[in-house]
Amino acid sequence: MTSDYDYVIVGGGLAGASAVEGIRERDATGSILMIAEESHLPYDRPPLSKKLWFGKMQLEGIFLHDRSFYETHGVTLALGAAASRLDPAAKTITVAGGATYGYGKLLLATGCKPRKLDIPGGDLDGICYFRGLDDYLHTKGKAAEGKSAVVIGGGFIGSELAAALNINKLDVTMIFPGELLCDRVLPDYLARAVQQRYREKGVRILATDQPVSFGKDGDEFVTRTGKGETITSDIVIVGVGVVPELALAQSGGLETGNGIVVNEYLQTSSPDIYAAGDNAFFPYPVLGQAMRIEHWDHALTQGKWAGRNMAGAYEPYTHQPYFFSDLFEFGYEATGEVDSRLETFADWQKENDTGVVYYLRDGKVRGVMMCNVWNKVEAARELIRKRVTMTHGQLRGLIRGYR
Ligand SMILES: Cc1cc2nc3c(=O)[nH]c(=O)nc-3n(C[C@H](O)[C@H](O)[C@H](O)COP(=O)(O)OP(=O)(O)OC[C@H]3O[C@@H](n4cnc5c(N)ncnc54)[C@H](O)[C@@H]3O)c2cc1C
Predict the structure, then answer these.
(1) Of 196, 293, 367, 388, which sits 20 to 30 A from 283 (CA to CA)?
(2) Is 36 in the pocket of ligand 1 (CB under 6 A)?
(3) Average pLDDT in the 121-139 region?
(4) Does any ligand 1 atom lie closer than 6 A to the CB of residue 305?
(5) Per-residue b/e over 316-329, b at no fewer than 16 CB within 10 Å?
Protein backbone atom coordinates (compact mmCIF):
# COMPACT_ATOMS: atom_id res chain seq x y z
CA MET A 1 0.00 0.00 0.00
CA THR A 2 1.22 3.53 -0.75
CA SER A 3 0.76 6.52 1.58
CA ASP A 4 0.98 9.86 -0.14
CA TYR A 5 2.52 13.06 1.21
CA ASP A 6 2.75 16.51 -0.32
CA TYR A 7 6.39 16.66 0.78
CA VAL A 8 8.81 13.86 1.56
CA ILE A 9 12.21 14.69 3.06
CA VAL A 10 14.84 11.96 3.02
CA GLY A 11 17.55 12.58 5.62
CA GLY A 12 17.14 13.75 9.18
CA GLY A 13 20.21 15.98 9.34
CA LEU A 14 20.53 19.75 9.40
CA ALA A 15 19.42 20.28 5.78
CA GLY A 16 16.39 18.01 6.22
CA ALA A 17 15.27 19.69 9.44
CA SER A 18 15.76 23.16 7.95
CA ALA A 19 13.62 22.17 4.98
CA VAL A 20 10.67 21.68 7.33
CA GLU A 21 11.00 25.33 8.36
CA GLY A 22 11.28 26.42 4.73
CA ILE A 23 8.17 24.50 3.69
CA ARG A 24 6.15 25.84 6.61
CA GLU A 25 7.12 29.44 5.79
CA ARG A 26 5.01 29.08 2.65
CA ASP A 27 2.66 26.18 3.22
CA ALA A 28 1.04 25.83 6.62
CA THR A 29 -0.91 22.66 5.96
CA GLY A 30 0.72 20.40 3.31
CA SER A 31 1.54 16.94 4.66
CA ILE A 32 5.25 16.25 5.37
CA LEU A 33 7.05 12.94 5.90
CA MET A 34 10.67 12.81 7.07
CA ILE A 35 12.50 9.51 6.46
CA ALA A 36 15.71 9.37 8.51
CA GLU A 37 18.14 6.51 8.79
CA GLU A 38 19.40 7.50 12.22
CA SER A 39 17.09 6.79 15.13
CA HIS A 40 17.83 10.16 16.80
CA LEU A 41 15.86 13.32 16.24
CA PRO A 42 17.80 15.68 13.91
CA TYR A 43 20.83 17.15 15.70
CA ASP A 44 23.81 19.43 15.11
CA ARG A 45 27.11 17.76 14.31
CA PRO A 46 29.72 20.49 15.14
CA PRO A 47 29.41 20.01 18.94
CA LEU A 48 30.31 16.31 18.53
CA SER A 49 33.94 17.27 17.98
CA LYS A 50 33.95 20.47 20.06
CA LYS A 51 31.61 21.80 22.74
CA LEU A 52 30.38 18.44 24.07
CA TRP A 53 33.97 17.56 24.96
CA PHE A 54 34.64 20.77 26.85
CA GLY A 55 31.49 20.84 28.99
CA LYS A 56 30.34 23.89 27.01
CA MET A 57 27.17 22.07 25.95
CA GLN A 58 25.14 19.17 27.30
CA LEU A 59 23.92 16.37 25.05
CA GLU A 60 20.28 17.59 25.14
CA GLY A 61 21.50 20.88 23.61
CA ILE A 62 22.53 19.39 20.27
CA PHE A 63 19.03 18.54 19.07
CA LEU A 64 17.74 21.03 16.52
CA HIS A 65 14.15 20.77 17.79
CA ASP A 66 12.33 18.68 20.35
CA ARG A 67 9.73 16.14 19.34
CA SER A 68 6.86 18.59 19.86
CA PHE A 69 8.24 20.81 17.04
CA TYR A 70 7.59 18.04 14.53
CA GLU A 71 4.12 17.42 15.96
CA THR A 72 3.11 21.07 15.87
CA HIS A 73 4.53 21.45 12.34
CA GLY A 74 2.59 18.42 11.12
CA VAL A 75 5.64 16.30 10.30
CA THR A 76 5.37 12.51 10.33
CA LEU A 77 8.71 11.09 11.43
CA ALA A 78 9.98 7.75 10.16
CA LEU A 79 13.18 7.49 12.21
CA GLY A 80 15.53 4.54 11.87
CA ALA A 81 14.29 4.03 8.30
CA ALA A 82 16.60 4.09 5.26
CA ALA A 83 15.08 4.98 1.90
CA SER A 84 16.43 2.51 -0.63
CA ARG A 85 14.70 3.10 -3.95
CA LEU A 86 13.41 6.06 -5.85
CA ASP A 87 11.01 6.01 -8.80
CA PRO A 88 10.68 9.52 -10.28
CA ALA A 89 8.16 8.39 -12.92
CA ALA A 90 5.76 6.96 -10.33
CA LYS A 91 6.79 9.67 -7.78
CA THR A 92 7.37 7.08 -5.07
CA ILE A 93 10.08 6.33 -2.60
CA THR A 94 10.58 2.94 -0.98
CA VAL A 95 12.13 2.29 2.40
CA ALA A 96 14.28 -0.76 3.21
CA GLY A 97 11.78 -3.28 4.54
CA GLY A 98 9.20 -2.43 1.92
CA ALA A 99 7.02 0.58 2.78
CA THR A 100 6.43 2.82 -0.24
CA TYR A 101 5.41 6.47 -0.08
CA GLY A 102 4.15 8.77 -2.80
CA TYR A 103 5.41 12.36 -2.92
CA GLY A 104 4.37 15.65 -4.46
CA LYS A 105 7.84 17.15 -3.93
CA LEU A 106 10.84 15.23 -2.65
CA LEU A 107 14.01 16.48 -0.96
CA LEU A 108 17.16 14.37 -0.87
CA ALA A 109 19.08 15.66 2.14
CA THR A 110 21.11 12.53 2.61
CA GLY A 111 24.43 14.20 3.44
CA CYS A 112 27.71 12.32 3.37
CA LYS A 113 29.19 9.17 4.82
CA PRO A 114 32.77 8.68 6.06
CA ARG A 115 35.37 7.44 3.62
CA LYS A 116 36.61 4.01 4.76
CA LEU A 117 40.23 2.82 4.82
CA ASP A 118 40.76 -0.15 2.54
CA ILE A 119 43.57 -1.74 4.56
CA PRO A 120 43.79 -4.93 6.63
CA GLY A 121 41.73 -4.38 9.78
CA GLY A 122 40.11 -1.27 8.28
CA ASP A 123 36.70 -2.66 9.17
CA LEU A 124 37.71 -3.99 12.61
CA ASP A 125 34.97 -3.75 15.21
CA GLY A 126 35.44 -0.64 17.36
CA ILE A 127 37.39 1.48 14.87
CA CYS A 128 35.42 4.68 14.73
CA TYR A 129 34.81 6.39 11.39
CA PHE A 130 33.57 9.50 13.14
CA ARG A 131 30.46 11.19 11.76
CA GLY A 132 27.45 11.02 14.05
CA LEU A 133 26.04 11.04 17.55
CA ASP A 134 26.53 7.28 17.99
CA ASP A 135 30.24 7.75 17.16
CA TYR A 136 30.49 10.49 19.78
CA LEU A 137 28.75 8.32 22.40
CA HIS A 138 31.01 5.37 21.57
CA THR A 139 34.20 7.46 21.79
CA LYS A 140 33.12 9.41 24.86
CA GLY A 141 32.32 6.12 26.60
CA LYS A 142 35.90 4.96 26.10
CA ALA A 143 37.72 8.25 26.60
CA ALA A 144 39.09 8.74 30.09
CA GLU A 145 42.14 10.44 31.56
CA GLY A 146 45.27 8.42 30.86
CA LYS A 147 43.79 6.41 27.99
CA SER A 148 45.35 6.57 24.56
CA ALA A 149 43.96 7.41 21.13
CA VAL A 150 45.21 7.21 17.57
CA VAL A 151 43.58 9.69 15.22
CA ILE A 152 43.96 9.01 11.51
CA GLY A 153 43.56 12.07 9.30
CA GLY A 154 44.85 15.62 9.53
CA GLY A 155 41.77 17.44 8.26
CA PHE A 156 39.33 19.30 10.45
CA ILE A 157 37.49 16.34 11.96
CA GLY A 158 40.75 14.60 12.91
CA SER A 159 42.34 17.81 14.18
CA GLU A 160 39.33 18.86 16.25
CA LEU A 161 38.97 15.42 17.81
CA ALA A 162 42.69 15.18 18.55
CA ALA A 163 42.45 18.52 20.38
CA ALA A 164 39.30 17.42 22.24
CA LEU A 165 40.90 14.17 23.41
CA ASN A 166 44.14 15.92 24.39
CA ILE A 167 42.18 18.46 26.45
CA ASN A 168 40.45 15.49 28.10
CA LYS A 169 43.95 14.27 29.07
CA LEU A 170 44.26 11.34 26.70
CA ASP A 171 47.55 10.45 25.10
CA VAL A 172 46.93 11.30 21.42
CA THR A 173 48.85 10.32 18.26
CA MET A 174 47.82 11.80 14.92
CA ILE A 175 48.77 10.11 11.66
CA PHE A 176 48.27 11.71 8.25
CA PRO A 177 49.88 11.56 4.82
CA GLY A 178 50.50 15.29 4.28
CA GLU A 179 53.24 17.38 5.83
CA LEU A 180 50.95 19.68 7.79
CA LEU A 181 47.53 19.37 9.31
CA CYS A 182 44.55 21.11 7.69
CA ASP A 183 46.83 21.97 4.78
CA ARG A 184 44.06 21.99 2.16
CA VAL A 185 42.68 25.12 3.80
CA LEU A 186 45.40 26.70 5.97
CA PRO A 187 48.30 28.32 4.11
CA ASP A 188 51.67 26.77 4.81
CA TYR A 189 52.83 29.32 7.43
CA LEU A 190 49.58 29.06 9.39
CA ALA A 191 49.34 25.26 9.20
CA ARG A 192 52.93 25.06 10.46
CA ALA A 193 52.12 27.31 13.43
CA VAL A 194 48.95 25.35 14.27
CA GLN A 195 50.85 22.07 14.05
CA GLN A 196 53.54 23.43 16.35
CA ARG A 197 50.81 24.33 18.85
CA TYR A 198 49.54 20.73 18.73
CA ARG A 199 53.02 19.46 19.48
CA GLU A 200 53.41 21.88 22.37
CA LYS A 201 50.13 20.61 23.81
CA GLY A 202 51.57 17.10 23.75
CA VAL A 203 49.88 15.64 20.66
CA ARG A 204 52.29 13.26 18.94
CA ILE A 205 52.25 13.97 15.22
CA LEU A 206 53.24 11.42 12.60
CA ALA A 207 53.04 13.47 9.41
CA THR A 208 53.87 12.09 5.94
CA ASP A 209 52.86 8.66 7.19
CA GLN A 210 49.73 6.53 7.01
CA PRO A 211 48.33 3.37 8.55
CA VAL A 212 48.86 0.15 6.64
CA SER A 213 46.98 -2.14 9.03
CA PHE A 214 44.95 -2.27 12.24
CA GLY A 215 44.93 -5.23 14.59
CA LYS A 216 43.98 -6.09 18.15
CA ASP A 217 46.09 -7.10 21.14
CA GLY A 218 43.58 -7.97 23.84
CA ASP A 219 41.44 -4.85 24.29
CA GLU A 220 43.96 -2.57 22.60
CA PHE A 221 44.21 -1.60 18.97
CA VAL A 222 47.53 -1.97 17.18
CA THR A 223 48.13 0.49 14.33
CA ARG A 224 51.04 -0.16 11.96
CA THR A 225 52.20 2.59 9.63
CA GLY A 226 53.97 2.74 6.28
CA LYS A 227 57.09 4.18 7.90
CA GLY A 228 57.31 1.26 10.32
CA GLU A 229 55.71 2.69 13.48
CA THR A 230 53.61 0.43 15.69
CA ILE A 231 51.25 2.21 18.07
CA THR A 232 48.93 0.57 20.60
CA SER A 233 45.91 2.54 21.78
CA ASP A 234 42.56 2.22 23.50
CA ILE A 235 40.78 4.19 20.78
CA VAL A 236 41.20 4.54 17.01
CA ILE A 237 39.33 7.33 15.26
CA VAL A 238 39.42 7.74 11.49
CA GLY A 239 38.57 11.06 9.85
CA VAL A 240 39.83 10.82 6.28
CA GLY A 241 37.09 12.67 4.49
CA VAL A 242 33.56 11.90 3.43
CA VAL A 243 31.75 10.90 0.27
CA PRO A 244 28.29 12.14 -0.71
CA GLU A 245 25.37 9.72 -0.33
CA LEU A 246 24.34 9.18 -3.96
CA ALA A 247 22.89 5.67 -4.03
CA LEU A 248 19.29 6.74 -3.66
CA ALA A 249 19.57 9.46 -6.31
CA GLN A 250 21.24 6.99 -8.64
CA SER A 251 18.50 4.39 -8.05
CA GLY A 252 16.13 6.94 -9.60
CA GLY A 253 18.44 7.76 -12.50
CA LEU A 254 19.14 11.33 -11.32
CA GLU A 255 22.22 13.14 -12.63
CA THR A 256 25.11 12.80 -10.18
CA GLY A 257 28.80 13.60 -10.18
CA ASN A 258 30.63 15.01 -7.21
CA GLY A 259 27.21 15.14 -5.54
CA ILE A 260 23.62 15.25 -6.71
CA VAL A 261 23.54 17.81 -9.52
CA VAL A 262 21.00 20.62 -8.91
CA ASN A 263 20.18 23.89 -10.67
CA GLU A 264 20.00 27.33 -9.03
CA TYR A 265 16.53 26.44 -7.66
CA LEU A 266 18.02 23.30 -6.09
CA GLN A 267 16.06 21.03 -8.42
CA THR A 268 17.69 17.82 -9.59
CA SER A 269 17.41 16.51 -13.13
CA SER A 270 13.88 15.42 -12.11
CA PRO A 271 12.21 18.79 -11.33
CA ASP A 272 9.98 17.63 -8.44
CA ILE A 273 13.03 16.27 -6.65
CA TYR A 274 15.37 18.65 -4.83
CA ALA A 275 18.70 18.13 -3.08
CA ALA A 276 20.40 20.26 -0.42
CA GLY A 277 23.27 20.21 2.05
CA ASP A 278 26.46 18.14 1.99
CA ASN A 279 25.26 15.99 -0.92
CA ALA A 280 24.27 18.73 -3.41
CA PHE A 281 26.47 19.87 -6.31
CA PHE A 282 25.08 23.34 -6.96
CA PRO A 283 25.91 26.55 -8.87
CA TYR A 284 27.72 29.05 -6.61
CA PRO A 285 27.13 32.30 -8.56
CA VAL A 286 29.52 34.61 -6.68
CA LEU A 287 32.43 32.24 -7.33
CA GLY A 288 31.19 31.50 -10.85
CA GLN A 289 31.44 27.74 -10.52
CA ALA A 290 29.46 24.70 -9.41
CA MET A 291 30.59 23.01 -6.23
CA ARG A 292 29.67 20.86 -3.25
CA ILE A 293 30.12 22.26 0.27
CA GLU A 294 30.32 20.28 3.51
CA HIS A 295 29.57 22.98 6.06
CA TRP A 296 27.00 23.75 8.72
CA ASP A 297 25.79 27.19 7.53
CA HIS A 298 25.42 25.87 4.01
CA ALA A 299 23.29 22.88 5.07
CA LEU A 300 21.19 25.09 7.32
CA THR A 301 20.46 27.71 4.67
CA GLN A 302 20.28 25.54 1.59
CA GLY A 303 17.93 23.09 3.32
CA LYS A 304 15.57 25.90 4.22
CA TRP A 305 15.85 27.37 0.72
CA ALA A 306 14.98 24.01 -0.84
CA GLY A 307 11.97 23.74 1.47
CA ARG A 308 10.74 27.17 0.37
CA ASN A 309 11.22 26.29 -3.30
CA MET A 310 9.43 22.97 -2.89
CA ALA A 311 6.52 25.00 -1.52
CA GLY A 312 6.52 27.25 -4.59
CA ALA A 313 8.93 30.13 -3.82
CA TYR A 314 11.08 29.52 -6.92
CA GLU A 315 14.02 31.61 -5.68
CA PRO A 316 17.56 31.00 -6.97
CA TYR A 317 20.03 30.00 -4.22
CA THR A 318 22.43 32.90 -3.79
CA HIS A 319 23.63 32.47 -0.20
CA GLN A 320 27.40 32.73 0.46
CA PRO A 321 27.95 30.20 3.23
CA TYR A 322 30.59 30.54 5.92
CA PHE A 323 32.26 27.86 8.01
CA PHE A 324 34.12 27.69 11.29
CA SER A 325 36.41 25.49 13.32
CA ASP A 326 38.21 25.47 16.67
CA LEU A 327 41.69 24.00 17.00
CA PHE A 328 42.70 24.51 20.64
CA GLU A 329 42.72 28.29 21.15
CA PHE A 330 42.82 28.94 17.42
CA GLY A 331 39.29 29.55 16.13
CA TYR A 332 38.17 31.01 12.85
CA GLU A 333 35.29 31.80 10.55
CA ALA A 334 35.79 31.69 6.79
CA THR A 335 33.85 32.22 3.59
CA GLY A 336 34.39 31.83 -0.14
CA GLU A 337 37.11 29.80 -1.81
CA VAL A 338 39.43 29.09 1.08
CA ASP A 339 41.94 26.95 -0.74
CA SER A 340 45.57 26.96 0.32
CA ARG A 341 46.70 26.57 -3.31
CA LEU A 342 45.64 30.17 -3.98
CA GLU A 343 47.89 33.13 -3.31
CA THR A 344 47.33 34.37 0.25
CA PHE A 345 47.93 37.61 2.07
CA ALA A 346 47.86 37.51 5.87
CA ASP A 347 47.01 40.67 7.77
CA TRP A 348 48.04 39.80 11.34
CA GLN A 349 47.40 41.64 14.55
CA LYS A 350 49.18 38.75 16.28
CA GLU A 351 51.13 36.54 13.90
CA ASN A 352 49.50 33.21 13.03
CA ASP A 353 46.91 33.75 15.73
CA THR A 354 44.73 36.85 15.35
CA GLY A 355 44.08 38.49 12.00
CA VAL A 356 42.65 37.96 8.54
CA VAL A 357 43.95 35.77 5.71
CA TYR A 358 42.88 36.75 2.19
CA TYR A 359 42.86 34.13 -0.58
CA LEU A 360 43.38 35.76 -3.98
CA ARG A 361 43.30 34.86 -7.65
CA ASP A 362 44.60 37.42 -10.15
CA GLY A 363 44.55 40.03 -7.37
CA LYS A 364 40.85 39.50 -6.60
CA VAL A 365 39.68 38.20 -3.24
CA ARG A 366 38.11 34.72 -3.58
CA GLY A 367 38.05 33.71 0.08
CA VAL A 368 38.63 35.17 3.54
CA MET A 369 39.54 33.48 6.82
CA MET A 370 39.08 35.49 10.00
CA CYS A 371 41.32 34.02 12.66
CA ASN A 372 40.17 34.76 16.21
CA VAL A 373 38.41 37.75 14.63
CA TRP A 374 34.64 37.59 14.99
CA ASN A 375 31.45 39.04 13.48
CA LYS A 376 33.11 40.07 10.21
CA VAL A 377 31.64 37.46 7.88
CA GLU A 378 29.36 39.94 6.14
CA ALA A 379 32.25 42.28 5.37
CA ALA A 380 34.17 39.34 3.89
CA ARG A 381 31.21 38.27 1.77
CA GLU A 382 30.86 41.76 0.37
CA LEU A 383 34.54 41.94 -0.52
CA ILE A 384 34.31 38.64 -2.44
CA ARG A 385 31.15 39.82 -4.22
CA LYS A 386 32.87 43.03 -5.42
CA ARG A 387 35.42 41.06 -7.47
CA VAL A 388 37.75 44.05 -7.74
CA THR A 389 41.53 43.86 -7.85
CA MET A 390 43.02 44.71 -4.45
CA THR A 391 46.63 45.38 -3.43
CA HIS A 392 48.00 44.11 -0.12
CA GLY A 393 48.10 47.72 1.03
CA GLN A 394 44.39 48.11 0.36
CA LEU A 395 43.59 44.88 2.19
CA ARG A 396 45.66 45.66 5.27
CA GLY A 397 43.30 46.57 8.12
CA LEU A 398 40.24 46.38 5.88
CA ILE A 399 38.37 43.66 7.73
CA ARG A 400 40.10 43.33 11.04
CA GLY A 401 38.98 46.82 11.59
CA TYR A 402 41.59 49.46 12.36
CA ARG A 403 40.45 51.55 9.43
C1 LIG B 1 31.92 15.87 13.80
C2 LIG B 1 31.57 16.97 12.84
C3 LIG B 1 31.90 18.28 13.14
C4 LIG B 1 31.60 19.32 12.25
N5 LIG B 1 31.98 20.58 12.57
C6 LIG B 1 31.70 21.56 11.69
C7 LIG B 1 32.13 22.90 11.97
O8 LIG B 1 32.77 23.16 12.97
N9 LIG B 1 31.82 23.88 11.08
C10 LIG B 1 31.11 23.63 9.93
O11 LIG B 1 30.85 24.56 9.17
N12 LIG B 1 30.70 22.36 9.64
C13 LIG B 1 30.99 21.34 10.49
N14 LIG B 1 30.58 20.06 10.19
C15 LIG B 1 29.85 19.81 8.93
C16 LIG B 1 28.33 19.94 9.12
O17 LIG B 1 27.92 19.33 10.28
C18 LIG B 1 27.66 19.32 7.90
O19 LIG B 1 27.97 20.13 6.80
C20 LIG B 1 26.16 19.17 8.06
O21 LIG B 1 25.86 18.31 9.11
C22 LIG B 1 25.54 18.63 6.77
O23 LIG B 1 24.16 18.46 6.95
P24 LIG B 1 23.30 17.56 5.96
O25 LIG B 1 21.92 17.59 6.51
O26 LIG B 1 23.55 17.96 4.57
O27 LIG B 1 23.91 16.09 6.08
P28 LIG B 1 24.03 15.11 7.35
O29 LIG B 1 24.24 15.90 8.60
O30 LIG B 1 25.06 14.12 6.95
O31 LIG B 1 22.61 14.43 7.42
C32 LIG B 1 22.16 13.51 6.46
C33 LIG B 1 21.29 12.50 7.14
O34 LIG B 1 20.66 11.69 6.15
C35 LIG B 1 20.63 10.36 6.57
N36 LIG B 1 20.51 9.50 5.39
C37 LIG B 1 21.45 9.25 4.46
N38 LIG B 1 20.97 8.39 3.53
C39 LIG B 1 19.69 8.13 3.89
C40 LIG B 1 18.67 7.30 3.34
N41 LIG B 1 18.87 6.60 2.21
N42 LIG B 1 17.49 7.23 3.99
C43 LIG B 1 17.27 7.93 5.13
N44 LIG B 1 18.21 8.71 5.69
C45 LIG B 1 19.40 8.81 5.09
C46 LIG B 1 21.94 10.19 7.33
O47 LIG B 1 21.85 9.10 8.21
C48 LIG B 1 22.06 11.54 8.05
O49 LIG B 1 21.46 11.49 9.32
C50 LIG B 1 30.91 19.01 11.05
C51 LIG B 1 30.58 17.68 10.73
C52 LIG B 1 30.91 16.67 11.61
C53 LIG B 1 30.57 15.25 11.25
Answers:
(1) 388
(2) yes
(3) 97
(4) no
(5) ebeebbbbbbbbbe
